Amino acid sequence: MSFSSPLVLLGLVAIPVLIRWYVSQQRRRARAAQAFVAPALTLSLAPHRPGWRRHAPMLVFAIAVAVLIVAAARPQQTVAVPVDSAATMLANDISSSMMATDVRPSRLITAQRAATRFLAGVPSTVLVGQIEFARKPVLLQSPTTDHSLTQAAIAQLRPGGGGTAIGDAIVTALHALTTLAPKGGKRPPSAIVLLSDGSSNVGTSPLAAARQAKALHIPVYTIALGTPNGTIPIKRGARTVNTPVPVSSQELGQIASSSGGRAYTAADSANASAVYAHLATQLGHKKVKREITASFAGGGLVMLLFGSVLSLRWFGRLA
Prior knowledge:
The chain is an alpha/beta fold. The protein has helices at about 15-35, 40-45, 55-70, 105-120, 145-155, 165-180, 205-215, 250-260, 270-285, 295-315, and strands spanning about 1-5, 75-80, 85-95, 125-135, 135-145, 190-195, 220-225, 230-235, 240-245, 265, 285-290. The strands form 3 sheets. The protein has a 6-stranded mixed sheet with strand order 5-4-3-6-7-10, sandwiched between helices. A 3-stranded antiparallel sheet has the order 1-2-11. A two-stranded antiparallel ribbon has the order 8-9. Helix 7 (about 205-215) packs parallel to helix 8 (about 250-260). The two termini are about 35 Å apart.
């Protein structure tokens, strides 16, 4: 929480002064009572003393004053609201290693389900496109607000053979994002969400592509999907051999860092969905400050009224 007029909060120093004044008044009242009544006769003259009730209204009044001072400082709360315009390109690795079942039911199916979770989490105003890549990238769907088209493209993802052209995938995504029609004279804020299980081994240098993305102010958020124990069956002559395809996250982390994005890892389907849900919130919303003065002012006035009711009910006076 922040304040538009923070200097007003200096008024809170009056609260301890008020409490000290009240305590001194209570002591003066006690001394005055002792001057007229012998201590031995106090119980017989006032058998039903108010006890804690004597101080409750004043405590409520002090809290109310503190709340009203905070209200006068115009408190603000940061909240997330849907963006009016933004674009995200999803880039999914479909190389043969994505058939590994160490992330059940498979790495690729998990990626598809997580991408669907992303679509469900972003506002309808966000443009979302889809790229698949193995040895070369393919633009399945240009960024669009018709998320049903992007969902259909996600459903088309199928294993695409050997090779992992991460750099080329980033370049293709950048082209799709930078050629979008400007809105209000400006290109919409954009980002790339790239999921893979390994390092690039063909095509453009992924780090060079990441630096290009940073120059265009388009961060790349990478997700390394898989475990060190992944394997896929590969035919070698007449027999089939389970070949290890351990996840490799180091290069993906460097890509994210070089582009101004962030790297994530996911070792199971639940974690992958959680990452995409988080990114949907992060990329589809912006943080704005909203003033909540009315809430504090209303609360302070209610407490003043409550303290007054207590004082009138118990003592027949306001203070």
